[in-house]
Specification:
The protein has six helices and five strands; from the N terminus they run ααβααββαβαβ. It has a five-stranded mixed sheet with strand order 2-3-1-4-5, with helices on both faces.
């Protein structure tokens, strides 16, 4: 092998290695762009992208979907009284409960702050099992939730917006300290 051939070989090898590293870095950045750093769940962007994809698949296949919008009650008060580290623990606890209460086919993420979203790829019976598991796992934490069955007539993201609005309305009328610990759900549809 001549010196020129060796140089060409190493240039080619370095170029391939550099391209591989660039691809790995890009994949990592994309993953981080759609993941919540505290919980490891999908973040809002990741949820929106995954929900849009699932919306398209569900329209083609007739897959039944149930959307759950959750709000961790009293997070601000917990942060004020006990500090942000304790608030972060509460968020991680809810995140863990969501992950253990859902299946791989479901979409779960942190919508922002103290709000979480789950899109369950099953029927109403599956949603009932989900709510029972959540209630069992989060006995000591107060969570409010809106459950909406998707009928396929509107975009799934629109239903999510409606669920968020329904949650805001419910929070406005709720009296401070009015709910005991545990998970409370209300039906949207």
């Amino acid at each position: 092998m001549t010196a020129s051939t060796r140089i060409d070989f190493w240039k080619s090898w370095l170029k391939d290695k550099t391209e591989t590293q660039k691809a790995q870095m890009l994949a990592l950045k994309e993953s981080q762009a759609e993941s919540d750093t505290l919980t490891g769940l999908l973040n809002r962007r990741g949820l929106e992208n995954s929900i849009s994809t699932l919306d398209n698949i569900s329209r083609r296949t007739g897959l039944e979907l149930v959307l759950v919008f959750l709000d961790l009650d009293g997070l601000k008060e917990a942060n004020d009284k006990m500090g942000y580290q304790e608030g972060d623990k509460l968020i991680k606890t809810v995140s863990s409960a969501l992950q253990s209460s859902t299946r791989n086919s479901d979409i779960v993420g942190r919508w922002g702050g103290d709000e979480f979203v789950a899109v369950l790829t099953n029927d109403k019976t599956g949603a009932k099992r989900f709510s029972e598991k959540m209630k069992k796992e989060l006995k000591e934490i107060s969570i409010s939730g809106v459950v909406a069955r998707w009928d396929g007539k509107e975009p799934l993201l629109s239903l999510l917006e409606k669920a968020g609005e329904k949650m805001k309305e419910a929070k406005k009328t709720k009296k401070p300290g009015g709910r005991s610990k545990g998970v409370g759900f209300m039906e949207l549809i």
